[in-house]
Amino acid sequence: MAHKIGVLTSGGDAPGMNAAVRAVARTALHKGMEVVGIRRGYVGLLSGDIIDMNARTVSGIIERGGTCLYTARCPEFRDMAGVKKGYEMCMKLGLDGLVVIGGDGSFRGAGDLSSLGVPCIGIPGTIDNDIQCTEYTIGYDTAMNTAMEMIDKIRDTTQSHDRCSVVEVMGRKAGYIAVNVGIAVGAEAVITLEEPYDLNKIAADIIRAKQGGKTHFLIVVAEGVGQTDVIANSIKDMTGIDSRVTVLGHVQRGGSPTLRDRVLASEMGYHAVQLLDQGIGNRIVGLKDGQVYDIDLQEGLAMKKPFPHRRYEVLTTTAF
Ligand code: ADP
Ligand code: F6P
Fold first, then answer.
1. What does the radius of gyration of the chain's CA atoms come to, in whole angstroms?
2. Is 189 helix (H, G, I), strand (E, B) or coil?
3. Per-residue pLDDT for 186 more than 90?
4. Ligand nearest to the CA of 129
5. Ligand 2 pocket, 125 CB below 6 A?
6. Which of 131, 199, 218, 304 could disulfide-link to 124, CB 3.0 to 4.6 Å?
7. Any ligand 2 atom below 6 A from CB of 12
8. What are phi and psi of 80, to 5 degrees?
9. Residue 311 in domain
10. Structural domain includes residue 34
11. Confidence of residue 2 (pLDDT cuts 50, 70, 90)
12. How many other CB atoms sit within 10 Å of the CB of residue 198?
């Protein structure tokens, strides 16, 4: 039903966004639609910064991190006046559908635009995996694998010096990366916002383990806790073990996407265009019970995502 659609990436970038852009463009072209890429998210929508896309525009990007469409945060789009301007640009460009690849902030903008009459579909793209209505967000797997590889390297030097490394991983409001990476690297402790933690207990466990012959320690902290230096200093004071902080930072946002990210991004992009082709908008594409599905945008944003407490238990049970 849609004849001309747009695609944009918005908010923090995530490896696999390119695979989603490619799938959206190729699926739409396959169906005989026209496709435009909107650069730098809603900023480009408001200024009309668009590129016509053909099958070759998206060649050679599936294996690349970042986003070929660039991304941005656009404060103006948070107000209905900005959204109205976006709607007028969609009308000017003749768009009868828009795919928004981003996080929950980007989806709120997509919901506002849908309410004015432009059918929008959200595809979850953020390394944090913090979108309520989906088990999985594009970029999460790559980011976790990158963090795991980096911490494996940190372990080498931590072990050589009999130290404790306190490593901060990304996750503005969520500890999903932290808990999974913590298990994968064999961390002694993981500290997230979702689980209560007791530094005295962690220190006591470390002292006991050291007496039992353990020589070095890894603690993974989710960025959102915001206390990584304080935690490292406390561990040092309480255990007497030389403790160092590493903040992994934006390295986790880059790099070639994993197979999982490429495949799910492709399937989500394909699914989004199927919806627009049927004239359906105001939906979020997600993963539920391992299958790609879609849900009403406002309903999806209102959901609460469970934290994998069982994984946290696996970590604490197997840590020492
Ligand atoms: P993410 O999409 O990763 O959550 P942000 O929260 O930075 O990232 O949001 C990306 C963009 O989405 C913002 O710069 C803004 O343009 C738009 N946006 C965010 N929140 C809203 C909102 N409540 N209503 C409308 N648009 C919003
Ligand atoms: O939401 C993804 C994320 O990488 C968070 O983990 C982090 O807190 C934030 O974005 C950093 O964003 P930026 O440095 O791009 O402003």
1. 22
2. strand
3. yes
4. 2
5. no
6. 131
7. yes
8. -60, -30
9. no
10. yes
11. confident
12. 10
* CA nearest ligand 2 atom 15, residue: 12
Say yes or no: CB of residue 253 within 6 Å of ligand 2: yes
For residues 154 and 38, give the distance between their C-alpha atoms in angstroms, rounded to a whole number: 40
Domain that holds residue 186: 141-253
> Which one-letter amino acid corresponds to residue 158?
T
The answer to whether the CB of 57 falls within 8 A of the CB of 51 is yes
Contact 242, 161 (CB under 8 A): yes
Residues 6+ apart with CB under 8 A from 293: 285, 286, 287
Please tell me if the CB atom of residue 78 comes closer than 6 angstroms to any atom of ligand 2: no
Identify the burial level of 307 via C-beta atoms within 10 angstroms of its C-beta, where 0-12 means exposed, 13-18 middle and 19 or more buried: middle
CA 8 to ligand 1 centroid distance, Å: 13
User: Is residue 119 in a domain?
Assistant: yes
pLDDT interval class at 225 (50, 70, 90): very high
The residue type of 229 is D
Q: Of 216, 234, 253, which residue sits at a domain end?
A: 253
From ligand 2's centre to the CA of 56, what distance in Å?
A: 31
The amino acid that residue 11 corresponds to is G
Distance 226 CA to ligand 2 centre (A): 13
Nearest CA to 243 among 254, 251, 235?
235
Which residues carry out catalysis?
Answer: 128
DSSP 254-281: -SPPPHHHHHHHHHHHHHHHHHHHTT--
Q: What is the pTM of this model?
A: 0.96
